[in-house]
Amino acid sequence: MGSQKFPGKKYEGPLHPWREDRIKSERELIKKYGLKNHKEVWKAKTFLRKRRTQARALLAKVGAATPQSKKESEQLLLNMTKMGVLPMGCSLDDVLALETEAILSRRLQTLVYLKGFSSTPYQARQLINHGHIGIGDRKITVPGYMVHKDEEGLITYTLRSPLNEISHPARPKRDMYRGEGAPAVKPETPVEKPLKAEEPAKPVLKEEKAEPKKETPEEQTQPDTPKEPVTEKTAHEKKHETPKESKKKETKEGA
């Protein structure tokens, strides 16, 4: 039971503390809902486990149909609908089909974030702990407070909180454009540039093809004489030329 000074535990830990799949799934929930540690996940699981145990016991008594079992089942379903976990007209089978996220989504920290009072789930936890969030006239500093369905619309900033001002830097940025004093942002209209006058296209000049050179009648009558290939002598050959060969060469060049 526990005492006022030393209250009992509100959760039951896992049977095996080092299951990899369980630790991985719990870490995903901690990151998604901005929880502090694994104990807050275990609190939600314990709350749901108790309701499931009660629903199983009541389903076993359906055949007897005692007035007490009917009364208990109606009270259980009414309690779950008031908390917003189940809709109206649900049955005990719907209680057994619930998951842990259905309980975590009803925490005050989650609803503060979903309603736009904070930018992140971690900021929602900070605002609640510092006393900036309340339900109606009450200031609540417990992030794990289970919000009832009729209290959901009463979540707001407390009266003494400086976050009531729209221009406060800690408020989400989207709130800056919701207020009445926010300047209206006009969409920019594109400026049309004057069109330049098109210049007349220049005529494209056709390239004149060079006409083939006409041969004279004298050139046509002369037979084509084969030209002798010119061979250049090396310096060694020029050095050892005889005087007769050099004279013959000079006479040829003179002719």
Description:
- With 255 residues, the protein is mainly α.
- Among the domains are: 20-104, no CATH class; 108-175, RNA-binding S4 domain (Structural Genomics Hypothetical 15.5 Kd Protein In mrcA-pckA Intergenic Region, Chain A, Roll).
- It has helices at residues 20-33, 38-60, 67-82, 92-96, 100-104, 108-114, 121-129, 217-221, 235-239, 243-254; strands spanning 133-135, 138-139, 155-157.
- The protein has a three-stranded antiparallel β-sheet with strand order 2-1-3, with no helix packed on it.
- The longest helix is centred in the first third of the chain and has 23 residues, at 38-60.
- Residues 176-191 have low confidence and may be disordered.
Question: What labels would you give this structure?
Answer:
255 residues; mainly alpha; Structural Genomics Hypothetical 15.5 Kd Protein In mrcA-pckA Intergenic Region, Chain A; three-stranded antiparallel sheet; 10 helices
Question: Briefly, what is this?
Answer:
With 255 residues, the chain is mostly helical.
Secondary structure elements and pairings:
Blueprint (H helix, E strand, L loop, with lengths): L19 H14 L4 H23 L6 H16 L9 H5 L3 H5 L3 H7 L6 H9 L3 E3 L2 E2 L15 E3 L59 H5 L13 H5 L3 H12 L1
Antiparallel strand pairs: 1-2, 1-3
Helix pairs in contact: 2-3, 6-7
